[in-house]
Amino acid sequence: MPISRTDTYLLPFGPAHPGSGNFRVWLTVQGERVVRAVAEPGFLHRGFEKLMEYRTPLQNSVLSDRICILEPLSWNLAFALAVERLQGMEVPARAQYIRTILAELTRIQSHLIWLGAAGLAMGFETAFKLALTYREEVLKLFEEVTGARVYPAGYIRPGGVRRDLPPGFPRRCLEALDRLEKDLWELDSVMLENPSFLARTRGLAPLSPEEAVRLGASGPPLRASGIPYDVRRDDPYLVYDQLEFQVASRDDGDALARFRVGRAELRESIGLVRQALQGLPAGEVALPPKPFARLPEGEAYVHIESAHGDAGVYLVSTGDKTPYRVKLRGPSFTLLIPVLEHLLVGVEVADVPVVFWSLNHCPADMDR
Amino acid sequence: MLTLIKYLLGRDLTLAFPKESEPPAERYRGRHVFYVDKCISCGTCERVCPNRAILMAPHPDPERYPKSYPQIDLAKCCFCGLCEEFCPTQAIQLTGDYFLTTFDRAELIVPPTQGDQSVSQKNPSP
Fold first, then answer.
1. Which residue, A52, A183, A221, B40, has most beta carbons within 10 Å?
2. Using one digit for the tens of pLDDT, what is the confidence trace for A23-60?
3. What is the pTM for the complete model shown?
4. Does A58 touch chain B if contact means CB atoms closer than 8 Å?
């Protein structure tokens, strides 16, 4: 019996790896090949589900910002929709449109960070800088509307949105989108259509449609595997049923397909914001907020298509001021544990960050 | 090559921070200003605060202000602006002042005195 095999190592990827985020995967490597991957989540656990039991819905909508750093407004939206379903509220049409605009702008900046960070993980540092420059345009719009660049402090909240759009916002938003659309070719040329990028990602870690469904993938990785499932189209919320958009999907299922789906979604989201700005009706933006009202007894589940995938909020209320139980379904949970563990087997060590970043995840919403 | 020339000849994309900075947006949520004469001591801000950063505390000058007034712990504050929004008399307002770094935690607990004095003077105003 061999005392030790010197060709097999246990290699941690993260949590201090520049490309891993607050997350660790234990890789069993044989030479350069990964033979087994075990995810170790929990580095970013903040206990939102418990914290939310001690706060009123209005306070929770401020808290829901922090669930995912890359897309606070999506989680604001999911939480607000859940409370509205529980209370049976009808939100004014203008608020619905403002929410749609902000949700799509969130998707744009989240996808930009995703593509940029993927570039950084692969050594395309120019792509990272470019993507963050583009994201800055969107963050400026956010600061103008919500009062802060990243955390909107419950801007989208039960009953509507906190304040109306500032005067002149539609024009500035359209200008920013035009600039973004004009400049995106730079990102394509240094990264997404770059031959060395294609060589590294084509055929890497393919995910078959059956496996994607079995492992519970959602969002861009699922659509890249040939299943065009998108909550915005298949279970419409807000005003998505009145807007025209294509659900980007590809059949290859490899890392390249996932990035290309993300790139196509950027284009679709820009189109969606334009349509929503065009259809923006006048009127009220919120029902009068009642900060200390009791929640009606009952339960509600709402899911939305966040930038990372199918994000859900489940609320149970026993008629108190605070919810009795809140369950958050983070899309990254299934992407980072079962899907990543499955995809990493057989991959070379140098490609681990590429596979990791191709999944469009956020460790924050996995750990919650 | 074209891109290189474009950026070489273009203006700088960054700002030399302490001397020049971009003004925050009009809605920016920074340090609070508290107007003690407007306050009616209703305690709504204390109840609505998600982080319990506001404590209704006595005023340092109890002769003139005998009731309790909001004392804000900026270290706990998440700058959501709910206190500003639900204050019936606009006694609390959030400003564009984002220079909040300090060496002493105690400085972050703002007593319920007239607001304009509590705004820091040591940092350059934005």
1. A221
2. 888 888 888 888 888 888 888 888 898 999 888 888 89
3. 0.86
4. yes
Question: Model confidence at B118, in pLDDT bands (50, 70, 90)?
Answer: very low
**Domain with A231 in it: what CATH number?**
1.10.645.10
Residue B30 at interface with chain A, using a CB cutoff of 8 Å? no
Residue A367 lies inside a defined structural domain of this protein: no
Model pLDDT for residues A251-292, shown as the tens digit of each residue: 888 888 999 899 899 989 999 999 998 888 888 888 888 888
Domains in chain B with CATH codes: 26-118 (3.30.70.3270)
Residue linked to tokens 């097999």 = A8
| Residue A58 lies in domain | 8-358
Distance CA A272, CA A268 (A): 6
A59 shares contact with chain B (CB less than 8 Å): yes
Residue B79: count other Cβ atoms within 10 Å of its Cβ: 22
Average pLDDT, chain A: 86
Q: Is B67 on the interface with A (CB under 8 A)?
A: no
A163: which chain B residues are within 8 Å (Cβ-Cβ)? 27
Q: Which two tokens stand for residue A13?
A: 């990827």
Measured between alpha carbons, how far is B66 from A283 in angstroms, rounded to an integer?
Answer: 44
Q: Give Rg (Cα) of chain A.
A: 21
Which one of A46, A58, A189 would you mutate to disrupt binding with B, by most B Cβ within 10 Å of its Cβ?
A58
Do residues A352 and A200 make contact, with C-beta atoms less than 8 angstroms apart? Answer: no
Q: CA B110 to CA B37: how far, in whole Å?
A: 16
Chain B CB contacts of A58 under 8 Å are: 48, 82
Q: Who among B25, B47, B78 is closest to A144 (CB)?
A: B25
